[in-house]
Structures are given as structure tokens and as C-alpha cells.
Amino acid sequence: MPLIFQYGSNCDAGRLNGEKRLAGDANDLGRAETVDEHDICFDVWSQGNGCAAADLLLAPGSGRHAWGVLYQISDTALAKLRQIEGKYYEERRIIVRNEAGEEVEASTFLVKMDARRQGLWTSVDYVGHIVKGLREHEIAEEYVQHVIDIAIETNRKALGRAHDDAVAMEKLRNSEKGQKR
């Protein structure tokens, strides 16, 4: 059964396993971190989410590694996930370090070069799924705050309603679980 690494809103296992997505067909194997240096960004428009969605960019020399969740899914679920990710993402193989410290190869979905855009905004609801999933998997709060920082920075560079969502995202910093760390 295929392994997939999810770093965006599908870090929230409840979202990924919800009826609108994989309907319980994703087996949560726990947190994982990219072996190569990557950073998260929000550079593709998601019609389904109504905002910019997450992407990973190589970040050599940055010392940054992206965190997410490793799942095992069926071939049928992988086919459905390919449809969900849509035409702007491409499936790629990536090496991640699982909770046991083992390096494993998994599939992930990265935004195609020609689909990447600047000036987009993301929503507090979308970023909230990422934050919820990261915290549920006990990923270091420092990384959670980094994701929030990138989302706010993205919205500050965008036009339109982005400012209101940037202000609302500040509340994610102090959500109940974030205060416990």
C-alpha cells in the first residue's frame, strides 16, 4: 500500500479521512519531516478551498525541513487523492524521516512550476487545518509558528480580503493547544 506525505491541510487526519476526501481510507502513521531542506509556501489557487493552498519549495542551505504527516493508503485512495489535488499539483517521490527516525520514500503532491503564483492570499480556515494537524501530531510549536508566519506574510503581500485573514490567523498562535507548549 502506498505511503503519502501530506504537509498542507491534509495534516488534519480528520479532514483527509472525512467523507469529502478519503472516507477513512488513510492510515495515520504519524509525523514525518523532509530529509532534504524544504519550506512551505502558499502559491497556488485552490478553487475547492477558495484560497491559496500549500506547496513545498526546495530550500537548500536554509536549514529548514518541512513537517507533515505520513499516511498509508490504498491504491484506490491514491487515485482519489490525485483527483482531489487536481491539475495544478503533480505527484512526486520524496524522502521523509518518520517518527522512528527511519528514512522512507513516499509520494507527495507539489505545485507544478507553471501553476505557481505570487500575490495570492490564503484563509484562516485553510491554515487552521494545517495548524490543527501539526499540533495533533505534536510537531514542534516552533514549526507551527513558522507556518502561521508564512501564511500571514503571504496575506500581507496579497490584495483584497487578505488583511482580515492575516489578523484572524494571529489567533491561531494562541489557540488552546498552542498555549500548552
Can you tell me about this structure?
- The chain has six helices and seven strands, in the order βαββββαββαααα.
- The protein is of the alpha+beta class and 181 residues long.
- The protein has a single domain, classed as Hypothetical upf0131 protein ytfp (Roll).
- The chain has a five-stranded antiparallel beta sheet. A two-stranded antiparallel ribbon has the order 3-4.
- Strand 3 and strand 4 form a beta hairpin.
- Helix 3 runs parallel beside helix 5 (162-173) and helix 4 (141-157) packs antiparallel against helix 5.
- The longest helix has 17 residues, at 141-157.
- The chain is globular.
- The mean pLDDT is 93.
Query: Helical segment tally?
Result: 6
Query: What is the top-level CATH class?
Result: Alpha Beta
Compressed to H and E, one letter per element, the order equals: EHEEEEHEEHHHH
Shape annotation? globular
CA-atom Rg in angstroms: 15 Å
Mean pLDDT: 93
Characterize the largest beta sheet: strand count, sense, and whether it forms a barrel.
5 strands, antiparallel
Label the structural class. Answer: alpha+beta
Annotated CATH topology? Hypothetical upf0131 protein ytfp
Distance between the termini: 35 Å
The CATH architecture can be given as: Roll
The total beta strand count reads 7
Unreliable stretches (pLDDT < 50, length at least 5) are none
Strand content: 25-35%
